[in-house]
Known about the structure:
mainly beta; five-stranded antiparallel sheet; 0% helix; elongated
Amino acid sequence: MTDKIIQESKKRITQNFSQNHKGIDFGARKEEQENRVFAHSKGIVKKTVTKASRYPYNDGSIKTYGNYVDIDHGNGLITRYAHLKEVNVKVGESVQSTTQIGIMGTTGYVTGRHLHFEVLKNNRRINPYPYLTQDFENTKKEIYYQSHDSKYQWNPNVSIGSKEYAGNFGYPIDAVYMDSYRIRVHDMVKNEWLPWVENRNDYAGNYNNAMDGIQIDHGKKKKLKYRAHTKGGTWLSWVSGYNNTPNGYAGIYGRPIDAIEVKFF
């Protein structure tokens, strides 16, 4: 049985990072000892809020976090732990990955008991997924992508180059998010290519409008190839990065895409 939530429990994720949710949520369990929250890795406690209550509105204010802890890990990296029932550390305290900093709760704007975890890089919230199981200094330089489908949910992050794909067969994708690469998608309903989206700034797509094409621009970065799976169909051919094939894309107009796969070459 593990006490740690972030370092060892990806299976507890209830909501992933997306444009509208700048963190990852971990669900509570019946065993109270499993709801203890530990620091991600060594650092200094930068800020704590300890007297918050449940907040009825999601107005984007800091009040929506409830009780929370910010830990400074150096090099512009900060981790945030929100909706805590109680806080067990003080500002200025040194912590390690074995330091309990609080307990999951329902403070702030919540629909149930959970931990909301964020990673900030130079005061900008980034996808925490690559950092969940490793200290910052040992983090692999993996790049992730993610799909949103007609079940109105963001699917789990997938690492570029892994043998996994993003999507659920049978459920058309209507939005895609990707680290580090510029992307755009073709809206099947509007029958038009949507604007290019810069890496990490936003997702590409329109909720509820299935996509039937995708292009990825690798620029001067490591080159990619990618492919799409059509609903009720099969995997289509691999497409090289947009720079190599300016008129190429993955998909077939009129056929909704329900999965995508990306890898390096």
